[in-house]
Design brief:
Blueprint: H1 4-19, H2 46-59, E1 61-65, E2 76-77, E3 80-81, H3 87-90, H4 95-98, H5 112-121, E4 126-132, H6 149-152, H7 159-170, E5 173-179, H8 210-228, E6 234-238, H9 245-258, E7 263-264, E8 276-279, E9 291-295, H10 313-325, E10 329-334, H11 344-360, E11 368-369, E12 378-385, E13 388-395, E14 403-407, E15 409-418, E16 427-430, E17 433-437, E18 448-460
Parallel strand pairs: 1-4, 1-10, 4-5, 5-6, 6-7, 8-9, 9-10
Antiparallel strand pairs: 2-3, 11-12, 12-13, 13-18, 14-17, 15-18, 16-17
Helix pairs in contact: 5-7, 5-11, 8-9, 10-11
Bound molecules: 4-nitrophenyl 6-deoxy-alpha-L-galactopyranoside.
Length: 463
């Protein structure tokens, strides 16, 4: 069969589609991420959205889990490097062959309690796992689609069920990622550019009807996720692609009908959803809307057996601080193996983040963005409690001369102390700000926290 023809057809159709694809005002493809500063639109009163988001905004830090058939051999397939969790697409593995991976998928070392314990020990307050990634394989018991982990693997267990229960036991919120506009198992899922569709089993994009997939698979599986596992705190949709505004609205209505407290991210599409997603990057400054940065611990979302480039704990902590100082959430990813284990280096680095959080978590949880545009030596988060405001100064670069200058800070300073020890620090008010005398050695070389309690309004700017 002429293999180039489908590409030509698909390409032409994709080009046609892309002409009326959802695009951002700047013309870039609308991935659902609303990076362009556009406000998310919502039919709900802002106070209602804020109420739903309250626990999430206070939590600040969660665990993302990418786990699926691609993990069986670390994103390799029959010795070929599948590059990422997109392995099926990268290697154009026919669905009937990719599905056979499930025949051997038997993660006997999986322990939901262990995974949740790792997240909790890191200081994470919520967990979101891929319930169905782009390959279309459900990592949960899905009565509407036999293409799932309970039906098709020798393991026959439901990790979504077990993790939801373990999260409830250990006090974490639980949520599910769901690939909305990409599904390489279903014949009716065209994508914006055709490039991210399954064009090797289903070559003709023009014959694909998203509405059939939406009715046949998306709505039934979202209903299953929201009725089989107790409270689902977040539905983390991905790649909305060809979903219409009406379908996004219909999906939100279904979710709110089943679980009104379930938070929905912006990748539900069409600038809807409760919060914006920033993937693998931290915005320069905060944002008007609630937002979350999601990031990998190495270079891959799914388990990639040859990727040992783990981000140093210093980077992880400083990313968390940077994100919180801008009012965002940090969703940090692990990619468990086909045996059901979170890779050792991931566990170790998360353990070290947890050590930092046990001392400094007060300066992250329940805080909002700090008032400073830029601090040369670190970041600042803020917590308001009635008339008292606490500014948490996160010092990355400890001053060598023992003097930490806080530009423009004025107001009724009640106390300044090291968070780690409670040791009070002396200060001097200069015309351009506050000078804090600090000990020679920082309490923590990654990021040391100084708590500045201010009564009344925090005033910034020179006299
Ligand atoms: C998507 C997935 O393709 C990927 O496998 C992973 O699950 C990630 C969290 O989400 O990747 C994206 C989605 C959107 C953008 C970039 C990568 N985007 O908006 O630029």
């Amino acid at each position: 069969m002429n293999r180039t023809l489908p590409w030509l057809l698909g390409g032409a159709f994709a080009f046609a589609l892309s002409l009326n694809a959802q695009t951002n005002p700047d013309g870039s493809a609308d991935t659902g991420d609303a990076h362009d500063g556009q406000k998310l639109v919502s039919s709900e009163p802002p106070a209602q959205v804020a109420k739903r988001l309250q626990w999430w905004s206070e939590a600040r830090f969660g665990m993302f889990i990418h786990w699926g058939l691609y993990a069986q051999d670390g994103c390799f397939y029959k010795g070929q490097d599948g590059k990422t969790e997109h392995m099926m697409r990268h290697l154009q593995i026919p669905l009937k062959d990719y599905a056979k991976i499930a025949d051997d998928f038997n993660p006997v070392k999986f322990s939901a309690d262990e995974w949740v314990g790792i997240a909790k020990n890191a200081g994470m307050k919520y967990m979101i796992i891929t319930s169905k990634h782009h390959d279309g394989f459900a990592m949960f018991n899905s009565p509407s689609s036999d293409y799932n982990i309970v039906k098709r693997t020798p393991w026959k267990r439901d990790p979504v069920k077990e993790l939801a229960e373990a999260c409830r036991k250990q006090g974490l919120k639980f949520g599910a990622y769901y690939s909305l506009g990409r599904d390489w198992e279903d014949p009716d899922v065209p994508t914006r550019d055709g490039y991210r569709s399954n064009t090797w089993d289903f070559p003709d994009e023009s014959k694909k009807d998203f509405s059939k997939y939406f009715e046949r698979k998306v709505k039934p599986q979202v209903r299953e996720l929201l009725t089989q596992y107790g409270p689902i705190a977040v539905l983390w949709f991905d790649t909305p692609e060809r979903i219409s505004k009406k379908q996004s609205e219909e999906l939100i209505a279904l979710i709110h009908q089943l679980q009104p407290d379930c938070i929905i991210n912006a990748r539900v599409g069409n600038r809807l959803g409760d919060y914006a997603v920033s993937e693998q990057k931290i915005p320069e400054s905060g944002d008007v809307k609630p937002w979350e940065t999601c990031m990998t611990l190495n270079g891959h979302w799914g388990y990639k057996k040859d990727d040992e480039k783990w981000k140093p704990t210093e980077t992880l902590v400083r990313n968390l601080v940077d994100i919180a100082s801008k009012g965002g959430n940090f969703l940090l990813n692990v990619g468990p193996t086909g045996e059901g284990l979170i890779p050792g280096p991931s566990v170790q680095h998360l353990r070290e983040v947890g050590e930092w959080m046990r001392v400094n978590g007060e300066a992250i949880y329940g805080t909002t963005a700090g008032p400073f545009a830029k601090l040369d030596w670190g970041r600042c988060t803020k917590k308001v409690n009635g008339k008292e405001t606490t500014l948490y100064l996160h010092v990355f670069d400890w001053p060598k001369d023992g003097k930490l200058f806080v530009p423009g800070l004025r107001g009724q300073i009640e106390s300044v102390s090291l968070l780690a020890t409670g040791k009070r620090l002396s200060t001097a008010v200069s015309e351009n700000g506050l000078v804090i005398t600090v000990p020679e050695t920082a309490p923590n070389k990654i990021s040391a926290t100084i708590a500045v309690k201010v009564s009344g309004p925090v005033i910034l700017g020179a006299k």
